[in-house]
Structures
1.
Amino acid sequence: MKVLMFGWEFPPHIAGGLGTACDGLTRGLAKHRVEVLFVMPSASGDEDQRAVRIINASEVAAFETKEEARQIFDKVQFIKVTSNLIPYLGPDEFEEQVDLEREKEWNEFRISFGQKFKFSGKYGKNLMEEVMRYSLVAASIARQNQFDVIHAHDWLTYMAGIAAKRVSGKPLVIHVHATEFDRSGEDINTQVYDLEKRGMEAADRVIAVSNLTRNIIINRYHIDPVKVFAVHNAVDFSSAESRKITRGVPEKIVTFLGRITFQKGPEYFIEAAYKVLQKTQNVRFVMAGSGDMFNRAVRRVAKLGISSHFHFTGFLRGEDVRNMFAYSDVYVMPSVSEPFGISPLEAMRANVPAIISKQSGVAEVLHHAIKVDFWDVNALADAIYGLLTYPALSAMTVRCGLKEINSLKWDNAALKVKEIYESVMEKNQKKP
Amino acid sequence: MKKTLCLYFQVHQPYRLRQYRFFDIGKNHDYFDDFANKTIMARVATRCYIPANRLMLELINKYDGAFKITYSISGIALEQMEQFAPQALESFQELAKTGHVEFLSETYSHSLSSLISPRKFRDQIKVHVNAVEKHFGQKPKAFRNTELIYSDTIGEMVAGMGFATMLTEGARHILGWKSPNYIYVNALNPKLKLLLRNFRLSDDIAFRFSNKSWGDWPLTAEKYAGWIAGALEKDDIVNIFMDYESFGEHQPASSGIFDFLKAMPGMILNHTNLEIMTPSQAAAKHQPIAPLNVPYAISWADEERDISAWLGNELQQEAFNNLYKIEDLVRDSNDPDLQRDFRRLQASDHFYYMCTKFFSDGDVHKYFNPYDTPYEAFINYMNVLSDITLRASKK
């Protein structure tokens, strides 16, 4: 079985969890003898290609000839048209506008026969344009390669997936690692929402990283539940990570590590810290990360008068993240909405007990973490206090938690994904 | 000589804890969820205790003493009945007046004290004996420990307190090839006779009665009496021990459990070689056949029939050990409120809620559990324990 997979990033150059998840999944698929052609906008050449063949979209021309261009363009021109339409048009004006747009787009692109587009592969200002160009290149790649299924990860690649499906007629599976609601709360970017919804609608199967996300897909995007499946993310930890670290302070450390944005629930962490500090001073709280709520968080901590026991580290990466875990006695993830959430697993791997919000996908697979509603500051404070005060609690969550996270293997997740591929391939074969 | 069927029902309700946060420690000494405790007691009284007692009374009158039953009611269940369902208590008292009902003794708090503190264990039994005498006008002669927990040394302690009979589980790993359907004696003190629960025949009613995917569903009184008679072709006594709440609560009235109960004694007594007795009568009648060696504690819970449901993980052990650390302080305090709260915190149920076994098996655990996870149960209990420890230390 061969899969044409569209991603946006792949280790070692990653900005978030998406690349890591793609890496784990493709390794798992390789073990189940699924061959993966992994397309990404900008590859550096140092990616580990043992489990996948990487196709660098920056090295593929969108179309070589005028005829090819026409063929592809007829199938994929839809991409730009609807997203740029002006609202409140009558039917005639609408058609006129569509024709106009179509012609404009054609003109824009025809100069670029045989040319390659240098993608940044980042998440910058030209993101929308990159997403669109990526889909054109995708169509071309779909023409040049043989495969059985198309698999697209997150909204950035959905258009590429659709284009590949239109050109090849092969079934499309899209993989939702996060929705616009997880990124932006209720204040969503409607353009992104549209692209997501179109991806989900065009897909033969939708994979969600948790039931939480599956429900969002069904309820907020109105996708038919029968084609949406939850496949939980996994981790490939070989062993517990224990590193020696010398502490500068005698108090216990409670850590929040993540983007300081509304969705991650930093303010609940601060309020809980305040409550715990009312009862015991033998503890310090650390908020590691950056984000648009950073300044507000600092102000709130100052206003509560707990700054002497509450510390901000700014954004941490690599070694510093691992050191931070090693430094911690309790890890807290109070996310308001978290499609999956891999960081508690990393904390548990470093022998740090975790408190996670019930509004996270990872809560669906973890037994040995303490779960609270993100808004329930009292419960959160109580859980922190319990872990700090009652040694058996932290000993047991650590011991059992480690065993538990070691059983969350990508092998198993990949097998579920493979079964989903098989289900659409059969369906595809039945068609005349 | 006639063969014996012995029916004993356990009546127990714990005082469930309210949500007790750490900021309550040292400030708020109100630990119990009055609303939940009241609601549950009222519900169980309506669905089980009152209708089941009414039926039992009818049956005792109908068979003119040939139908006998046995109860053990924990002290904290009696307390809650007095508080929240006095009618239920009255109906038990009516049954006591017939003279055909035996009341067993147990630890007042339905506690696990036999596993840690002989003195606490004895104290609680004495308190319970007094409660039974007060409410039912009889002094218990037979004993059942919390969750039928038993070992050689526990049996020896019970014998030392003057009890002639004790009830426990017919655990397969203890019995091996031996049958539970005989009277045994304690390995250290042969004066103490042991009645062993026939778990298969007990669970046929308690767990399987309404299970439609069970091969023997529906269970009729006739069929069941046939099984009892079959088991007693060679053996002496079948002991059917179960939670009283099986009638009407665990097995709903709509399953026909009351009709079954109503018809059962007649079907049993139709077999002319069978009779129904209470534990003390049965123990006096039948010859014990052997001492039973139980070096490690057994119970009637889960597949393991051991104490792992209450003390199997480190959360439970930590909570348990910390609880009994303040035992002396509480006893010496002369503070009745403190002593009352300490009694209530000893109920085995609090430790059951912290069991992690149900992550893999045991729907039974989930059914009885007010907490979402054992970790929540532990945190809540430890917060309460921290407060009561402060209170005890201040005295």
2.
Amino acid sequence: MSTLAVHDHGVLHHEEGHEHHHKATFLNTYVFSQDHKYIAKQFLVTGITMAFIAMTLSILFRIQLAYPDKSFPLLETLLGRFAPGGRLSPDFYMSLVTIHGTIMVFFVLTAGLSGTFANLLIPLQVGARDMASPFVNMLSYWFFLAASIIMLSSFFVEKGPASGGWTIYPPLSALPKAMPGSAEGMTLWLISMVCFIGSSLMGGINYVSTVLNMRTKGMDLWKMPLSTWALFLTAILGVLSFPVLVAGVVLLIFDRSFGTSFYLSDIVLNGKVQPYEGGSPILFQHLFWFLGHPEVYIVIMPAMGISSEVLSVNSRKPIFGYHAMVYSLIGITVLSFIVWGHHMFVTGMNPFLGGVFMITTLIIAVPSAVKTFNWLATLWRGNIRFTSAMLFAIGMVSFFISGGLTGIFLGNAALDINLHDTYFVVAHFHLVMGSAAIFGMLAGVYHWFPKLFRRMMDERLGYLHFWITFIGAYLVFFPMHFMGLDGVPRRYYALTEFPAFNRWLTVNTFITWAAIMSGVAQVAFIFNFVYSIFWGKKTVQNPWKSNTLEWTAPIEHFHGNWVGEIPTVYRWPYDYSKPGAEDDFIPQTVPFSQTMSSNLPHDFEDNPAGLEEYNKWTTANKANEEVK
Amino acid sequence: MGFKKLISSKKTLSLFAALVLFGTNILMAQSTGGTALDGSTTNKGVAWGSVGYYTLLFLVACLCVAIFGKILKVYDLTQKMQGKKGLNWNNIMGVCCLIFLIAGMYGAYWSLTVQGSMKLPISASVHGVAIDDMFDLTTILTLIVFVITQFLLFGFLFLYRGSDKRKAYFLPHNNTIEKVWTIIPAIVLTILVVFGFFTWQKVMDTTPEKGDINIDVTGHQFAWELRYPGPDGKLGDLDFRLSSPLNILGINYKDANSFDDLRADTLVLPVNKVIRLNIHAQDVIHSVYMPHFRVQLNAVPGLPTFFKFTPTITTVQMRQITDNPNFEYLLYCNKICGGGHYNMQKVVRVVSQAEYQDWIARQKPYLTDQLRQQLKMPVAPVLAPVAAAAKPAGQDKALANRLALNK
């Protein structure tokens, strides 16, 4: 009943909308657009730009790790005082590591991924004309852009960008004299992050309310595609956890600028006794990781949703265990709030607390395992069509397995003692949330590119892009596990001071070249992306023969998505290769009355009238056959 | 139509190639000119030659990709013109997946055996053995899952690669199998959790024992300071407000236990004795990391912590085990702490009890004559290591402490 009412509202809105949009100007169409599809494109392009910047930063510090004693005059030409004599300075190395992590985690894999696909897919897949509040949605993008610009501007302040690691633990980040990056660079980091969280909240509230209130007729929650489910739960996670980081950040700003001691106590810096007393640096870590751990699920869940969708469409098979997939997403959402302490096993936190967090952490591995097995079962006996998007979704699953398994080591407090903050951790999270999430994002870009830009991307360049990146990422991160097992710490500017680590230098050089190779492969993507936007092959209505609602919307973009009435939904989105059906896909908008030959009793579980009809039809059919 | 396209594309390609050559010629010319000019002043100018070289290399690679792409397209088109089927990308990608599976598995095996053998030597502490057992168990279980799942993933991709002749098998769910693969991981993880929990509790056991050797380790940018108790076996109080150039740790000399606290440059530990490391930080968070002993705990300003462990292998023995005559145990910082983070280490040496007694007798106390003067305390008449014995006030305390210890 409620969906009906909302649906009517949508129509009304649409009619009003027509009057508004007669006055379409350049500014409100191409800059301050309130159309969710256009905002999605803005998020995507900004996200990709930030990804390229962060990738370049990573290659810079990889060069330092591979050639710690070599001087590259070009670096001095490009970076000036940050690379005196052609070698990165240790402080700037720290800045690179910090900003690489910050941009990748927040700006690319949170805003770039959720921002793009939640904006594009939620209204189109639930059947809404736009977000609940298009204006707030637009603001969300502009706050994100402002945050990005502020973050990047920190490269132009004298002492360089923030350099305390992306986790910005105080006192290092709270004391401007503790390292150059903790001066103005850190202030900009904090301002940028407050803007970013504003953006994320505005987006998240919109996504949640759109999913809850603006679904089309017939689209109940259990008929939503997994991509929408994942984006919806991600938005809930973000709305509940990001504000805690704001609290942490504001207290840090107080400590830095107004002389409070929330996080500071007993400090003697450079031989000078500081006046701070009574605070606790561990408090910040609790606040940070209360966001920080849900954050890694904010990063991976949209990738999971997108991959589920892409794997199902391209295997021409329903996703295996749809309900289990949704329940495991919900399980991950809930559990992700009570595992943050596993980042703090060796901080000196009460060991009993460590034990509790270890238990919750290993419990969260169960829904993740269920998801993996369900993906494998989806592929089993499929009819797999290797599109570029499919390959990236497969890559996502492979990385998620490889990286997820090492999480079982790190979630175990006893093992974490020796592995904490080593390259083992770097390998773990780059595979499980870095590579896996970026592959999910790329799968989404290749899959929904026709929806975004009305043209197709080149598949063969996509294949090239996939294989080089996929192999490259494994070559980069697999050897890092063993560096970690030898006790090589992360965030070291050079390993040269430790004779025992000399034997890892060749491995480091190898990793750097693998990273450069993967970096260069992204040129294939960016060329393909830009070229296809302007000159790609024009798309057809439903290029992947997919069931979901977005492919029923006209190819031409206009504010409001559908001409006339929004289509009604009759079935779940995964009726692929249903026995008895003519095609190997039945879109959600096809009623069961049109597919009598392929209906199953299972389709009418909560529909007694339909079941009766079905039984009548089957008995009639049987009778017919007997007559024949 | 196709041919026309081909001709035009050839033209563009050759144009592109010419442009590339021309461009690099200019670059090269610039670079030689540049070096000729700069050569006299500095030999550290930017090597534009090598920049140009790599740019050219990249462009050549792009060109190769473009040409290869065109060839594929032409092949595909001619096949289709002759009425044959074009390239079957599903088969090609399916085979690629199979090749990746085999090559990848071999690569993982190679990495595990060659690079895996470069990991830390056997644990040099009692609790470390339990951690290593835990690690081995987890490795075996996860490796089994890793191999099975990756085999299934890429195996399925090859086996079920797309074809027009087949239709996928409609299988939306199967409650039995879903229950099975929820419960099995749950059981395996429960086993790991239970073992892990007890190992963790054992490692973090905080009950104090008689005869523990208390050692203070304090981190600051970018070094570690060590403090050993003197003959009284007790460390004096610390108060950060008392820090000064002469008293960097801020030792409180109102506490008589602190008079004989010893300063050391190397963390020397007697073998098979329980060591209690008291961990402090002065400025930012550091982390005491001694991987050979499977010891790590953060040093947090304002939050003193401690880690108890028992070294079992002396440095000399470990040199034999690792077959490396220069082997040293190390303590280094493992929490980002500033620009010098990458070089904040301390040598750790595990020795026999006799060697330890000999070494500790030669260490000097923190309370130097200079500091005594500053604190207006009587300067010790004898520079013997047992400074406390000369001081009547300290003597009483020390005696009382010894008695307390013997109880």
